[in-house]
Amino acid sequence: QVQLLESGGGLVQAGGSLRLSCAASGSIFSINAMAWYRQAPGKQRELVAIITRDGDTNYADSVKGRFTISRDNAKNTVYLQMNSPKPEDTAVYYCNALIKLISGHQYTYWGQGTQVTVSS
User: Fold this and answer.
1) Please, how many CA atoms are within 13 Å of residue 3, restricted to the half-sphere of its CB?
2) pLDDT tens digits, residue range 56-97?
């Protein structure tokens, strides 16, 4: 019923920049919070950044001042601008969204993940 399609991952040099996008599609009535998580090999999935429908944001301490989360409600899309990435930012990045369907039910959805590799 709902898909989250991520794009923008890849290989980036430390100190460079990269922008991730995640577009939601399907039987969507509204989207509440949207977020980016990441999971590095051998580690647990962790929250990177979250944004409410009204634009309030919160970040993991490790990315504050370097990453920026934003969203376009008209396009049902969330972005993650990654500036000055570090090798320790290397991970699979997942999009997450709390979505209310046309049916009235509300669920949390995940994207398929996009690999981000930061070279030193």
Assistant:
1) 5
2) 999 999 999 999 999 999 999 999 999 999 999 999 999 999
